[in-house]
């Protein structure tokens, strides 16, 4: 199988033909292989990927699944999710953002990797709204956890 950088280039070229809006945006992301990341992510205007992840996307779903992953990453940048986290819980914010962009990918008819965050109840919502819902649904902290946090904040 061709190397991941070639596969990403091929997916972006097909996106330009089938999904010109997303394809042109994907050209702004500079692919960089990084074995410390397990999947794919955006960092500023870099598309950070693990070779094994890209290869597995293509093996299990073809270039179409890789295109879906690229649109997913492009939309994080377009919607400024990377820069808008602020003081929020990073893991919960990432989850909320994933729910939002995965709906966009799905609505375009592109494939998503198995096991992604996707729920119809968050359709047409912003990451901020999804985050607030997820935050409200978290189980309440126990008294011990709350007191440990307040003590650590005083040091």
Summarize the structure.
The chain has 155 residues and is mostly helical. It contains six helices and three strands; from the N terminus they run ααβββαααα. 28% of the residues are buried.
Structure overview:
With 155 residues, the chain is mainly alpha-helical. It is built from six helices and three strands. The chain is globular and about 50 Å long.
Brief descriptors of the model:
59% helix; single chain; 3-stranded mixed sheet; 6 helices; disordered C terminus; 155 residues; mainly alpha
Report the total helices.
6
The best one-word shape is: globular
- Which structural class best describes the helix and strand composition? mainly alpha
Helix content: 55-70%
Radius of gyration: 18 Å
The sequence of SSEs as H and E is HHEEEHHHH
Return the average pLDDT rounded to an integer: 89
- How many beta-strand runs? 3
| Termini gap | 54 Å
Low-pLDDT runs = 146-155
Bin the strand percentage: 5-15%
Main beta sheet: strand number and arrangement? 3 strands, mixed
Spatial strand order of the main sheet: 1-3-2
Strand and helix layout:
Blueprint: H1 4-18, H2 20-26, E1 30-33, E2 40-43, E3 46-49, H3 51-78, H4 90-107, H5 127-137, H6 143-154
Parallel strand pairs: 1-3
Antiparallel strand pairs: 2-3
Helix pairs in contact: 1-2, 1-3, 2-3, 3-4, 4-5
